[in-house]
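Tokens in:
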């Protein structure tokens, strides 16, 4: 189903939904579409967030001002991301991050009750969308678990080894696989400085442990990488 230029079934929230099911769901819950210019603040840290946001287009940054007054960038949201479930379903609904548009962006805001209260007809549209939302929440939890693993890996080389082993988990040793991250995003995921990451990758390549060209990597010695973790 089209919503302006957007085909909603291309987003994980509406996976496996037919046009008429998407239409029934939207008619029932009445989400709010909003367009944001680059630099616009969608939400302020420590304010209630009662909606769940679907990012139709663009890129958003999650930032937080710490006790020291320094702003920390916790991550980015890409097109298709669903955000706000944990906050909207919590008791106080206070969101811990500010949300800022890194590019022009378009969002759909759904009231949280749309995902825990089915319509009177208990239609298939609600069942499918709720299932997809839970699946997305589980994926986010897995990403967070992986990030905790990177942070607990110890050395920088250990973090890189764990990261690459997980990214290439379905790829046979020596075969190429493409990362979802550029170097800056990889450094952010591992909570390390980008220059330090680049030096460590270069050393591991020179030692014959890995090979890479931009985002395309090959793990040449998986046993050695597993020992590092």
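Residues out:
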């Amino acid at each position: 189903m089209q919503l302006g230029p957007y085909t909603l079934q291309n987003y994980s929230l509406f996976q496996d939904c037919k046009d008429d099911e998407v239409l029934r769901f939207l008619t029932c819950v009445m989400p709010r579409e909003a367009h944001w210019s680059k630099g616009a603040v969608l939400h302020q840290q420590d304010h209630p967030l009662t909606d769940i946001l679907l990012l139709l287009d663009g890129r958003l940054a999650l930032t937080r001002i710490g006790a020291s007054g320094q702003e920390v960038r916790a991550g980015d949201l890409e097109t298709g991301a669903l955000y706000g479930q944990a906050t909207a379903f919590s008791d106080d609904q206070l969101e811990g991050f500010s949300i800022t548009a890194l590019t022009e962006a378009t969002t759909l805001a759904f009231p949280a009750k749309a995902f825990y209260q089915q319509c009177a007809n208990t239609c298939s549209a609600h069942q499918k969308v709720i299932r997809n939302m839970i699946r997305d929440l589980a994926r986010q939890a897995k990403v967070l678990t992986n990030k905790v693993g990177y942070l607990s890996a110890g050395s920088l080389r250990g973090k890189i080894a764990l990261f690459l082993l997980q990214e290439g988990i379905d790829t046979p040793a020596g075969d190429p696989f493409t990362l979802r991250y550029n170097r800056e995003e990889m450094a952010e995921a591992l909570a390390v400085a980008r220059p330090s990451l680049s030096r460590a990758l270069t050393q591991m390549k020179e030692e014959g442990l890995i090979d890479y060209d931009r985002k395309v990597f090959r793990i040449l010695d998986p046993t050695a990488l597993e020992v590092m973790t």
